[in-house]
Design brief:
The structure holds two protein chains of two kinds.
Chain A: E1 4-8, E2 11-12, E3 15-16, H1 18-34, E4 37-44, E5 60-65, H2 74-88, E6 92-96, H3 99-112, E7 115-120, E8 122-126, E9 129-136, E10 141-147, E11 152-156, E12 172-177, E13 186-192, E14 204-208, H4 218-228, E15 231-234, H5 236-240, E16 261-265, H6 271-277, E17 282-286, E18 300-302, H7 306-318
Parallel strand pairs in A: 1-4, 1-6, 4-5, 5-12, 6-11, 7-11, 14-15, 14-16, 16-17, 17-18
Antiparallel strand pairs in A: 2-3, 8-9, 9-10
Helix pairs in contact in A: 2-3, 4-7
Chain B: E1 2-6, E2 9-11, E3 33-35, H1 37-53, E4 56-63, H2 68-77, E5 81-86, H3 93-107, E6 111-115, H4 126-134, E7 137-148, E8 151-158, E9 161-168, E10 171-175, H5 187-195, E11 198-202, E12 210-216, E13 225-228, H6 234-243
Parallel strand pairs in B: 1-4, 1-6, 4-5, 5-11, 6-10, 7-10
Antiparallel strand pairs in B: 2-3, 7-8, 8-9
The chains are: A alpha/beta, B alpha/beta.
The structure holds flavin-adenine dinucleotide (FAD) and adenosine monophosphate.
Adenosine monophosphate binds near residues 6 and 93 of chain B.
Chain lengths: ~325, ~250
Amino acid sequence: MADKILVVLEQRDSQLKKISFEVAKAGSDIAKSTGSEVQAVIVGNEVADLNKIGNYGVKKVTVLKNSELVDYSPSAYSKAVADFANEVGANVLFFGNTALGKDLAPRVAVKLDAGIAMDCVELNNTDGNIVATRPIYAGKALIDVQINSDKKVFTLRPNVFNPGDPSTEDAEIVEKNIDSPDLSTKVIETKKAEGKLDVAEASIIVSGGRGMKEADNFKLVEELADVLGAAVGASRAVVDAGWRPHAEQVGQTGKTVSPNLYVALGISGAIQHLAGMRSSKYIVAINKDPDAPIFQVADYGITGDVFEVVPALIEELKK
Amino acid sequence: MKIAVCISHVPDTATNIKIGEDGKSINPTDVTYIINPYDEIAVEEALKTKEKVGGEVVAISLGTDANKDSIRKALAMGVDSAVLLKDENFRDSFGLAKALAEEIKAQEAELVFFGKQAVDFDNSITGQLTAELLGYNCVSVVVDFNLDGNKITAEREIEGGKEVVETTLPAVITAQKGLNEPRYASLKGIMAAKRKTIEEKEAVSSESKIEILQMKKPQGKQAGKILGSDASAVPELVRLLKEEAKVI
Ligand SMILES: Cc1cc2nc3c(=O)[nH]c(=O)nc-3n(C[C@H](O)[C@H](O)[C@H](O)COP(=O)(O)OP(=O)(O)OC[C@H]3O[C@@H](n4cnc5c(N)ncnc54)[C@H](O)[C@@H]3O)c2cc1C
Ligand SMILES: Nc1ncnc2c1ncn2[C@@H]1O[C@H](COP(=O)(O)O)[C@@H](O)[C@H]1O
C-alpha cells in the first residue's frame, strides 16, 4: 500500500536549514520508489525561500504559522506537527536527526502512536516497506530496522543524504495559522557561540588532540580550520583538560559527525573518538606515532610532527 | 519532592562489538557493562536537586538482574531507593518508555532525570517519549538546570549554541555532559548501598513497534596511504584532497 509521506523541515531565524533539503530529497526519493505521495511541513512564521523545497522534489509545503513560533517550543511544535499529520492523513514522517529533530520527533511519535527509528543513514524500499539502516554502539555496528506500526517516524542523520543538484521547480506554499499555541515549554533565548561553525553542521572539520600540547597551540588548529572554511573539533582529552569547550568534542560522548573531510591533528584515534567520526567521507591524520590507531581509518596520513606539518599545510593551502 | 532518575546498563564504551549468532543482537561474551555515562550525570543532578529542595530520589532501571550493578552504583552515589523493572526481552524505546512512565506514575515523581542518550542503541529519545506519555513537560540535552519553586529554567545544547528554555513541573530533564561533574561514591556510600534493597517488579508488557531485521558490522575502512613523515608530504596531500577526494 502506498504511503502518505510528510517531511518535516527546519528553520532557524526564519531561514531554512540545510538539513531541510536533505530530508526533502530523501523523502521524495523514497516516495518515488514506493509510489507514495509526499509533502512538506514547517513550523515558524515568515520562513524565507520556502519555494526552494520544490528544487528537491517536494511540490507542496505548508507553514504552520504564528509569530510566537519563530523559536522552538517543544509543546507547541509537537502539537502543530502531529495535528497536521493527522489532518492530511500522513503515515510516514521524516525529520532531521538534529537538536530540534531529536527533541521533536519522539513527541510527535507518541501523539501519533508511531514507531520511531532514529538517526537513519540509509533508507531502502524492500517490497514496499521502508527498511532503515542506523548505527548503534556509536557506529561500531549497524542495524536494519523496519517499523511495524501503522504510523512511522524516521529521523535522518545530517550530511548523509545527498540533496544532489537542485532543479528549478518551485514548491507551492500553503499557510496555516496556529491559534493559541501551547507554550508551556518554550525557548526564551538563543545563545550563539560567537561566529563559530558547529562540528555537527560543518562539511569540513579540523580537530586537535592532546598532541597539540597546550591550549594556546589551538591557534594553529583554528588557522587551518579558517583556510579550509572548517569547524574546529577536539578530542575528549583536550576537552577534559579544559583547553576546548565540550561543544567541540567529537566522539562517543561528544558529537557524532560525518563531514566530507575530517582532519585529525595529534589525535591517537581511541575507539571512543573513532566512534564519533569514522563515517566521515575522507579522513586525514597527522600524528608522529605511525602506530596510532587513527591511521587505520585515515585515507591520507602524514606520520610527522604537527608543529612542522600544519604550518606547511596552511602555507600550501593559501597558495 | 519525589525525584526519579532512569538509568541504563550498557556495554563499556571501549568494548569491541561482535555480532551474535542470531545476527540480530550482540555477542555478550567478554563485554563489560557499566552505568550509562550520561545517566551518572542524571543521578548527580537528581542528588544536587534533592540537596537543594529536599525530598527523595528513586532510581528506576529496566532490564535483567545484571542491571543491579548500575543500580548499586547510583545507590552508592546517594540515591535513596531503587526499582528494577524486570524484562529479559528486547524492547523498543516506546515499550521501554511505557514501562518507565508507569513506574514514575506509581512513584508520584514530579521531576525525572534521564541521560540524553544510552550509549548502546544511541536512540536519544526515551526521556522525551516518557515525558509525552506522562503529559509532563520536557527539556532535552540539558547543560544547565535551575529549579525555582515550580519553575524550571534550563539550557539545552543545539548546533552552534544553546537554547534557554522555560517550563514548569512536572517535568523530564535529559542530561548532557557539561551539566555537572558526577560525584565519586564514598566508601560510606558504597557500604550503605549494599544494605539498601532493590525493589523488583515485572515490567508491564508491551508490543514492539520496531523490528530488527539484521545487525551488521560497518564496512571497514581500508587503511589509507601514508604520504610521508614530514612537511615534504604536504603538497601531495593537498593535491590528493583536491584531485582525488575532491573535498577542497
Ligand atoms: C566513557 C568514555 C567516553 C569517551 N568519549 C570520548 C569522546 O567522545 N571523544 C574522544 O575523543 N574521546 C573519548 N574518550 C577518551 C578516549 O578513550 C581517549 O582517551 C581520547 O580520545 C584521547 O584523546 P587524544 O587522542 O587527544 O589523546 P592521546 O590519546 O593522548 O593522543 C595524543 C596523540 O598525539 C600524538 N602526538 C603527540 N605529540 C605530537 C606531535 N608533536 N605531532 C603529532 N602528533 C603528536 C601522539 O602520538 C598521540 O597519538 C572516552 C573515554 C571513555 C572512558
Ligand atoms: N533500560 C532502561 N532502564 C531505565 N532507563 C533507561 C533504559 N534505557 C534507557 N534509559 C534512559 O533513557 C535515556 C536515553 O536512552 P536512549 O533513548 O535509549 O538513548 C538513558 O540515558 C536513560 O536515562
